[in-house]
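@channel sequence for tomorrow's demo:
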Amino acid sequence: MSERNAPRRTQAERRAETTARLIDAAIGLWATRGIEDVSLDEIAAAAGRTRGAFHANFRDRSELAARVRDTIVADAAENISSAVHSAPNPSTQLSAYIRANVGYIAAKPAHARVLAAIVQHEEWTGAARYIDRARGGSSDVVVILRRGIERGDFRQLDVDLTAMVIRGALDAQIVSGRIVDMDSATTIADELVELFTSGVSSRPPRARARG
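C-alpha cells (generated this afternoon):
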C-alpha cells in the first residue's frame, strides 16, 4: 500500500505516539543524567517533538515522571507476573519473584535507574513517599506469603512487614552497584532467595538442608 493510500492516523493515535516518544526520551536522558538536570526542551528535542507538543501531553515534569514510573512498573510487572504464575507453589513463587526482580535490573538497567530516580524525585517534591510506593509494590509478595502460610509452607509471620522487607531489599539492589551483568544478578538472586525462603519457611533448618 502506498503512502498516499495508507489510512490517516487519528488524533488519538498521533497523541499516543508522541506520548510514547516523550517517555522513551525521558528514560534515555534521565538514566544517565538524573531528572532535575535534564530540561523539558531536551526531552522534547530527543523525542523529535516541540516544547508545545510536550505540554499538550504533560502538565509538567512531575506528571511525566509519574507516567514514566507507571510505564516501567507495568513493564516489570508483566515479566515478574509471568515468572511467578509459572511456579507451582508459594516457595517457588517467592523464589521466582525475587529472581525476576533482580533479573529485570540486569536486563534493563536504564529503566531500573530511572525508577529509582523517580522515587527520589517524588520524595523530594512531596508527590509520594517511598514507604507508600513500597507498600503498594509489595502486594504480590503479600499474596504469596499468605498462600504459603495457609498451606503450611511458611511459618506464621507479619505478612505486611515481611513483604516490605523483601521489597526494600530488592529495591536496594537498583542503587547498590552490585548488579553489573546477568552473572552478578544470578549470584545476588541466589543470596536473596536463600535468605528469604529460609526465613519464612515453616521447616526447621536441618529439614530444609536435607530437602
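heads up for whoever presents: The two ends are 62 Å apart (CA to CA).
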